[in-house]
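Long-time lurker, first post. I've been practising inverse folding by hand and with some scripts of my own, and I keep getting stuck on stretches where the structure tokens seem ambiguous. Below is the full token string for one chain I'm working on. Before anyone asks, I'm not after the true native sequence, just a reasonable design that respects the backbone. If someone could post their per-position residues I'd love to compare against what I wrote down in my notebook.
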């Protein structure tokens, strides 16, 4: 009886013949609840862990993006400073005032198709064919971008005029100049670079048979003295 009384206190009262089955059912349901609670708890922990990992990845991506942006900005600044003067500040033979005055200067066209405007008429002699000349030049494509310049090299270019050492348009244009003069030459493609020209890095390329513009100043002619007024 003592054992029977103790059992009745630990277990709920059940109808006769159903005690075992009902007890087993309660046990099964109870175990499922435990398993469900554990599963829910584990899922919550795993979600929290995944969220933390995602948050860390996002933070890392943001940090990397910020570093790349700052690096790009610094490299861009260094690149700009390292490239020297911007295009509009590069030394030229014709400044802004000269450009405005040049609009009113008449254009001269030769039989070959060369065109030119005198920026300044020189006072010295014109170079005979075959003579050496010292000239400064700024070579541009039609939109004004410079692809070569003696001014940036710091010394005049010396060549023998009329002997094919330079492009035909430059040869022809200088032959009719006077020492001390400046001229803008509009050279058609046939008198410039028929095969094109690959320029230095950062400079515009000259396409085959493309027109070019040369600003040129005839500095002196070795062997010929400048005539005085």
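-- Answer (accepted) --
I ran through it position by position. Result:
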């Amino acid at each position: 009886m003592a054992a029977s009384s103790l059992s009745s206190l630990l277990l709920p009262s059940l109808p006769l013949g159903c005690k075992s089955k009902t007890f087993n059912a309660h046990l099964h349901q109870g175990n499922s609840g435990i398993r469900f609670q554990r599963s829910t708890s584990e899922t919550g922990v795993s979600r929290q862990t995944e969220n933390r990992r995602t948050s860390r990845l996002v933070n890392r991506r943001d940090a990397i993006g910020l570093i790349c942006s700052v690096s790009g900005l610094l490299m861009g600044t260094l690149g700009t400073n390292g490239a020297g003067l911007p295009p509009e500040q590069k030394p030229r033979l014709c400044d802004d005032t000269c450009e405005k005055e040049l609009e009113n200067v008449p254009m001269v066209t030769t039989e070959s198709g060369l065109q030119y405007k005198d920026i300044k008429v020189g006072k010295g002699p014109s170079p005979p064919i075959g003579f050496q000349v010292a000239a400064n030049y700024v070579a541009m494509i039609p939109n004004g971008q410079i692809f070569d310049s003696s001014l940036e090299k710091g010394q005049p270019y010396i060549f023998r005029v009329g002997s094919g050492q330079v492009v035909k348009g430059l040869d022809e244009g200088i032959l009719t100049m006077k020492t001390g003069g400046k001229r803008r030459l509009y050279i058609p493609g046939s008198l410039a670079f028929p095969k094109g020209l690959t320029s230095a890095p950062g400079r515009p390329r000259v396409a085959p048979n493309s027109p070019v513009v040369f600003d040129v100043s005839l500095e002196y002619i070795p062997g010929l003295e400048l005539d005085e007024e």
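A couple of notes from the structure itself: The domain at 112-220 is CATH 3.10.50.40 (Chitinase A; domain 3). The helical segments are 2-10, 19-82, 96-102, 168-175. Happy to go over any region you disagree with.
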